[in-house]
Structures are given as structure tokens and as C-alpha cells.
Write a structure and sequence with these properties.
Radius of gyration: 24 Å
Oligomer: single chain
Number of domains: 2
Distance between the termini: 33 Å
Helix content: over 70%
Length: about 300
Amino acid sequence: MVRTRVIQTLFAYYKDSDKTVTSARNELRKSFADTYDLYFVLLDFVNEMTAYAQVQLEEQTGRARATHSNWKPNKRFVQNRLAQQLFDNRALRARMAEQHLAWDSGMSAVSDVYRRLTESDFYRAYMEADSCTYEDDKRLWRHIYQYLMVNNEALMDALEEMEVVMDKSNWTVDADIIISYVIKTIKRFKADSTPETPLLEMFDNEEELQFAIELMEKTIAGHEQYEQLINTHLKGWDADRIAYMDRIILEVALAEILEFEEIPMTISLNEYIELAKEYSGDKNYMFINGILTEILRDLKNEGTFFKGFAVK
């Protein structure tokens, strides 16, 4: 995600001639903060859907009373113990309040996921089981995120609307990745977890943010050098026809490979090939791989020093 953020920020930076390195740095920081807000919003989905289910249950109960039905409400879902822990979690409540985060404009996703849930086999098994453990409560919510929210169009539409309302960015791009972080968070909760239970930090460590800033700044500083390297190795390709995003991916990749000696070259190459697959498609990623390979081969033949050793 760190490299993705750098590429996205540079894409906007190069498109706007009025942007400065300082403004790009600020945008990069904001993009990380926005993604962290998305983590809290998606985690709070547990509370929103539990509240929605409670309303549905109350309406069903009211209809049963009106018709003098003997229907008995099943409260297992609305009394889910993990949901109660997240409702009580102080870090979650504080972030939602401080950043004015809410699902008000995204309730269509809540109703969509709830409908899908009530139609699912794993929900019926959960609700009809003779007994229910805390682990069963956790498992249900892991399944909801994993099977009902990943690649969910209604959720993407809701997050897109919420982005506009709350002035956030990249939520629809990052949603599936952040869902995996939410699942990781759920796995960490235990039956005796308290309201003080910590959630995931924005970064694994402060060095990640510093790395992102340095990578972006080094890419900008070496822009002309990297552009020349790329154009020199196009070999039959029209420089004006190379996709703009492909150029940015190539430049950031070169900045990392040539400037960050502590990162193994294989890791850098693999990271940017995967990013090329995501942003440029199956055919263009092979083009990006080929250009990088040619550039590094020539640097090796020239005896250029990079990655901490002399390439021969």
C-alpha cells in the first residue's frame, strides 16, 4: 500500500503543474490518514449492521404482536459478543467522533449486506445452532467481511458517496485491502477483551511513512534522469504512446532500486510488477518488466553501483 500511495500521489503531482513538492508531501500524508479512517469506518460497519438488524427485529416483533402471532424473536445476531466489544471500544468510538466519520450516506450498503447475510447458509447455521460460543460470534463476522463485503458493488457505491461527503480519497480503491485488516483485527479480539483493547496502528512503524515520503521525493528529484533512462530503452516504442501511469510506475521503481540500497532488488522488482498488473493490465505489466530488465542489465554492464554492491 505504501508504494501504491506514492504512485497515486505522483500521478496527481505530474498532472498539475501548480503542485509543489510540499503540497505533494501533504497530499501523501493525507492519503495515509484517509486510508486509516477507512479502516475505522469499515470496522464500525459491525455496529451499523447490528443496529440495522435490531430495527428489523423490532419491526418483525411489532408485526407479530399486531397479528397475535406466537413468533419468538431470535436475538443471537443482535447480541453478538464481538459486536458488543466493538461498540464499547474506546479507540473506535474516539476516532469516529474526532474525524466525524459516519455511515449516514452509506446505509444502502448496510441494507444490502444484511439482506445477503440473511440469505446465506453460514448465517442460518449460526442462528439455528443449539449453542453459540464467543468463537462462533467472531467467525460469523469474519465470514461477513470475507464473503459478503469483498468485491461488493453496493459497498463500493456507498464508499464512493461517503468519500465525497467526508472529503476522503481512495476508499473504493483500498476497500478490499482494508477489509483484510479488519479481519485481522477481529482475529485479535478475545472473550475477555476490554474497551481499552488496541486496534491496528496506521503504520507498522514510523519508518513506513518516512520511506513513502523519501521515495516520492527521490522520484521527483530524479525525474529527468529516470525519464531519459526509460526513453533510451523503449527500442521501437513511441515515447508519446507510453501510458502515463506506466511511466510513473517505471520512475518510482527506478528510484527505489537505485536509491534504497537496503531493499533487496528482487523485492523491489516483484512489488512493481504486481503494481503494474493492477494498474496497467496483463499486457502492459510485461512491457514494464521488460523495460526495467533492460535498464538494469545496461547498468550492470556499465558497472553502476546500486543496491549496495557493484554490478558486473
